[in-house]
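note to self: dont lose this again. the chain is below, predicted strucutre after it. 157 aa total, dont forget to put it in the shared folder this time
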Amino acid sequence: MRIGHGYDVHRLTEGRKLILGGVDIPYEKGLLGHSDADVLAHAIMDSILGALALGDIGKLFPDNDPDYEGADSMKLMEKVISVMTEKGWKIGNIDSTICAQKPKLATYITSMRERIAEACGCDISQISVKATTEEKLGFTGEELGISATAVCLLEKN
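---
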């Protein structure tokens, strides 16, 4: 078995969609980034790549590569899963947390879990997504951005 940890953060900005865990969340702001800036997907991918000792998503999908501008992070996750599978590993489970003061995310959690499980080629029971506020503290509490953390357990195929 191998364990990996991932973290990502993006600034909230006007004129962008808010996509978390592959789900389009209705909100007046979205996350700024080279791809779709899906912090949850990015944290999960980083946890998988970390467990494989392959660095982070910036190494596989550089933010100065025009091919990844506006990229769908679920498609990028499928590529990460392909690398994982080629190396002889499979998802044991993923546990993740989104930190956002707003919007409230509870009604979207199941959809996020479904999208992530589909991209990872595993059962939804292997995917945990939680959301929390930071009680109006720090950059997420001040609604300047959203962050996410993830841990994964990989098992040998």
